[in-house]
Amino acid sequence: MSFRILGPYTRTVATAAVIAATLIFSYTSLRVETWYAIQPLFEWMETTWFGVIGKTWGGAFATVQAGHLIGLAVLGGCVIASDGRLLGLLLTDVPARTVVDRAYKVFFWALMVTLATGIFMACGVAMKIYYLPVYWYKMLALVAGMLFEFFVRQPMLKGDIESLNPIAVKIVAISSIMIWFTVAATGRWIGFSG
Amino acid sequence: MQEDNQSKTKLNDEEVAGLTAGATVVVFFAIYWFLQIQSVRELLELAYG
Question: Could you tell me the pTM of the whole model?
Answer without folding.
Answer: 0.85
